[in-house]
Amino acid sequence: MAELMNRQIVLRRRPTGLVQPADTELITAPAPEPAEGEALVRTTYVGIDAAARTWLNDQPGYLPPVQLGEVIRAAGIGEVVASRCDAYAVGDVVTTLTGFQEYVISRDDIFTTPVPGPDVDQLAVMSVYGPTGATAYFGMVGIGRPQPGETVVVSAAAGATGSVAGQIAKIAGARVVGIAGGPDKCRAVVEDFGFDACIDYREANLHAALKEHCPKGVDVYFDNVGGPILDAVLGRLAHKARVVLCGVISSYLTGEHPGPANYVNLLSKTALMQGFNALDEWGRFEEAFGPLRRWADEGRLVHRQTIFEGIESCVDAMNGLFTGANIGKMLVKISEPGGKKIPS
Amino acid sequence: MAELMNRQIVLRRRPTGLVQPADTELITAPAPEPAEGEALVRTTYVGIDAAARTWLNDQPGYLPPVQLGEVIRAAGIGEVVASRCDAYAVGDVVTTLTGFQEYVISRDDIFTTPVPGPDVDQLAVMSVYGPTGATAYFGMVGIGRPQPGETVVVSAAAGATGSVAGQIAKIAGARVVGIAGGPDKCRAVVEDFGFDACIDYREANLHAALKEHCPKGVDVYFDNVGGPILDAVLGRLAHKARVVLCGVISSYLTGEHPGPANYVNLLSKTALMQGFNALDEWGRFEEAFGPLRRWADEGRLVHRQTIFEGIESCVDAMNGLFTGANIGKMLVKISEPGGKKIPS
């Protein structure tokens, strides 16, 4: 058989701001041969997460920076096409750190999870029954703890995590107000994801809008953005509020994190602000997936995707996350799901 | 008998920064007569807390601002000199919001607590078995939750709350590093209060000193000051750190709260920052006083005071809190404890 080739996007130069053409290169290399204990996975979808952009900066984080010359790291989903380990069989669907590439070696390690069933809805896995859904679940349920009648605010509400987090708060009986950029997203937040209201931060006076939509203050704030939006919501906290820090997308491009002066309200309101990372809960993901599956089956939890096509569009998709191009989970389709096995 | 006169310090003008002579006035008025259900208390000590300065600003808080013409509000301790209620007998020692005055009417309401025994150590009550001790206890035990071997940092470590909070962390088995201003305070923090080390923020490069004293990061930070010190400690957080927000003394004079840019470490370190107010735990104060008394009896918890003399010095004492005049609890002695009953 012809040698299996692997197209990969590698980092050539650390970007500042949006990723420029010269920052990355699309190269072609032979696909790796799985060693004993390994499997070869063909990537079907790569997930585009804001965190992946931070890995391109030379800053320590919960995962080390991507080094120059390395494939750009990203969480994705794929299908096992060759296996030399007991954990996976050819045809299995797995989520793993695929990176921006067509084939990846997978081990039965912490970041690889087999997905039950061959006919699994891979879009649903990437949007709900994977790290994105677990992030929304553990952040909202574990830290936010919305109670019936409380007011919950979610930023980046049209995004992958925010849209799920807000729906979880609705299911808990809270009144849920989204914050998003532009009329299309705000419409999706209310009409598709069922939030009670959505503030367009590009148009509205944020302070006035928060006062209007949260007259009794904000009991739970699920923050994906940081910056001035975080500061504005901190200025509206209710007594004993919980602020869930899930992301700081406003600063990922610049590396600058302006401090929220209204943090002092945490003191006057006896409130809590807590950062979290769903990877810390890796061993407990099934605790999240059970309720998420049930709610989805009951029609109470919907998911949407914005899908770019082809490995060539990975960088555009990553940049699009910061220019507001996506509603729901941002994905790049790398190959067709349900693809054939490699002829041996 | 001659009419009983009550010297009081009232607010005449809202101060900006330190309290100026023209901001207050010492007046003399007849002491109030207790009505049915009330008692008259002669103030022995007034406690000087940073929060009291915030009540002079025209800003809403957990208590309303002191109005012009009103006696300056402060928590203190005193002795019942006349009683027309069942809750208190003449000679009882009570803690209450005495304010800056010699006599105050007391009711059996939420802010008045009788202190058991006639021979009670009133200095100990003001320093440990009262709101100050409860603040240190509920903040450190309830939110900080220091574990053996962890590293705990306490700012304003020589102050009333910080000195107790740090000792509680020591008792819990943590390594405790104080931050204080000046060599005298730092010496007291280590030698009197038994902290493992103390950083003089006026002399040290705070970032370098935190790195030196907290090589594995900061697991618990008990913050009394806010501002650049909070930001510096946020920059050294350990994984799953807890930041207890107890006060923002750096901003009480100016009303300005610069936002801590390193709040973003709450996210990367999966850490928590929580504000609290011991008044929220009013009904549970005895949960704190039990352990605090036991530790004090065992000699593991010491307290110190800085005592000004006479009602005329209340404003100086309040200003002194912001210029660094106190080690331990700042008090003004208004009258002699164990004083005689009023002849009837």
Automatic annotation (TrEMBL), chains A, B:
Which superkingdom heads the taxonomic lineage of this protein's source?
A: Bacteria
Species annotation: Mycobacterium lehmannii
Which lineage? Bacteria, Bacillati, Actinomycetota, Actinomycetes, Mycobacteriales
User: Which Gene3D superfamilies does the protein's record reference?
Assistant: Medium-chain alcohol dehydrogenases, catalytic domain, NAD(P)-binding Rossmann-like Domain
Would the keyword Oxidoreductase be found if you checked this record's keyword annotation? yes
List the SMART domains: PKS_ER
Metal-binding as a keyword of this entry, yes or no, is no
Which InterPro entries does the annotation name?
Answer: ADH-like_C (IPR013149), ADH_N_2 (IPR041694), ER (IPR020843), GroES-like_sf (IPR011032), MDR_fam (IPR045010), NAD(P)-bd_dom_sf (IPR036291)
Q: Which UniProt keywords apply?
A: Oxidoreductase
Domain (Enoyl reductase (ER)): give its ranges.
17-332
* GO molecular function list: oxidoreductase activity, acting on the CH-CH group of donors, NAD or NADP as acceptor
Q: What is this protein called?
A: NADP-dependent oxidoreductase
Write the signal peptide boundaries. Answer: none
